[in-house]
Amino acid sequence: MTVEQKNAENAYLSIENVSIDFPTPNGPFRALNDVSLRIAKGEFISLIGHSGCGKSTVLNIVAGLYEATEGGVILDKKEVNQPGPERAVVFQNHSLLPWLTAYQNVELAVNQVFKGTKSKAEMKEWIEHNLRLVHMEHAMHKRPDEISGGMKQRVGIARALAMEPKVLLMDEPFGALDALTRAHLQDSLIEIQSELNSTVIMITHDVDEAVLLSDRIVMMTNGPAATIGEILQVDLARPRDRLEMAKDAEYNRYRAEVLEFLHKRHSNPAQKKPTPETSSEKAEDKKIRAVA
Ligand SMILES: Nc1ncnc2c1ncn2[C@@H]1O[C@H](COP(=O)(O)OP(=O)(O)OP(=O)(O)O)[C@@H](O)[C@H]1O
Fold first, then answer.
1. Is 22 left (phi over 0), alpha (psi -120 to 50) or beta?
2. Is the ipTM of this complex over 0.95?
3. Ligand 1 site-directed mutation target among 18, 20, 22, most atoms within 8 Å of CB
4. Predicted local distance difference test score (pLDDT) of residue 165
5. Would you say the CB of residue 31 lies under 6 angstroms from ligand 1?
6. From atom 3 of ligand 1, which residue's Cα is the shortest distance away?
7. Phi, psi torsion values for 226, nearest 5 degrees
8. Pairing mode of beta strands 228-233, 216-220
9. Host H or E run for residue 249
């Protein structure tokens, strides 16, 4: 059986022939063209590609925030056509309510999902359990302005996990953090993933992050009309240890494979013909190189 057939059989989340046109003053702009991806339960998928290729658009369609012009998304046999708590999103910039403590921020989401099904005591235990999962039990009664950026991101992840989503959607969740904090959070995510076996789609610009965390890395072509260019299956044994990985020849082969895709086979067109209008894309490309 081919990998493709195996994925089709095990699909928990299916993105089927998705295309999207955004209206612009010059007519419709096709951002994504014919994107298809089948994801198994418990799989960790990274989406990587140059700035503006459409990664967030894919995630927003799965989240139900954007509607595909063609094709659609099916999660656990049901079509996705609006946002819902079974698809929790973690953004780059933590979106905690500033006047609530870490505990209360998680409580808000838990109330939304479990009101009527869990007792007050069960809810308290569940909120604390999720804060413990991200190692935030010591600061659960602090407000966002009293904790660091990395801690806020941990609370954002706890809040998403506490909703017990079928799929966790992460849009550059560690993009705004310094390298060390980022590494700590990646390690926490590896730990959580091995404990919960969550199904995850994560957007990243960081090649090491993608290889370290993913079962498959989905590499997107440049837009407009972006689509999936290649998919890299990462067959590294778990649990993965970052220090051991750095010396592992297989790990470095996967890493080189992603870099080749991004900088050779699908290099950023902004780099080839630099113009003032593309300066923001060039900055983004530097971001990919800097973290690679
Ligand atoms: N609501 C919208 N209306 C019009 N165009 C949009 C809209 N959302 C995205 N686009 C366009 O679709 C393309 C893909 O954008 P998207 O944000 O998905 O890219 P991305 O790969 O996530 O970028 P980045 O890595 O910089 O976050 C871009 O050309 C963008 O300008």
1. beta
2. yes
3. 22
4. 94
5. yes
6. 22
7. -70, 155
8. antiparallel
9. helix 249-260
Q: 62-71, 149-158, 283-292 — which is least confidently predicted?
A: 283-292
CA distances from 101 to 149, 161, 179, 188 (A): 14, 17, 26, 21
The residue nearest atom 4 of ligand 1, judged by CA position, is 22
The closest alpha carbon to 85, from 52, 104, 56, 108, belongs to: 108
CB 55 near ligand 1, within 6 Å: yes
CA of 224, closest atom in ligand 1: 29
What is the Å distance from ligand 1's center to 15 Cα? 18
Query: Beta 200-203 vs 11-22: how paired, if at all?
Result: unpaired
Distance 52 CA to ligand 1 centre (A): 5
Pocket test for ligand 1, best of 51, 53, 202 (most atoms within 8 A of CB): 53
> Please, where are the H alpha helices in 82-206?
102-114, 120-133, 149-162, 179-196
pLDDT digits (tens, 9 = 90+) for 208-232: 999 999 999 999 999 899 999 999 9
pLDDT for res 276: 44
Over residues 248-254, the mean pLDDT reads 97
150 lines ligand 1 (CB under 6 A): no
Confidence of residue 271 (pLDDT cuts 50, 70, 90): low
In terms of Cα–Cα distance, which of 178, 249, 177, 176 is closest to 211? 249
| N residues, the chain | 292
| DSSP-based three-state secondary structure for 13 | strand
| Cβ–ligand 1 contact at 22 (below 6 Å) | yes
Cα distances (Å, whole numbers) of residue 35 to 211, 214, 256, 271? 22, 19, 24, 25
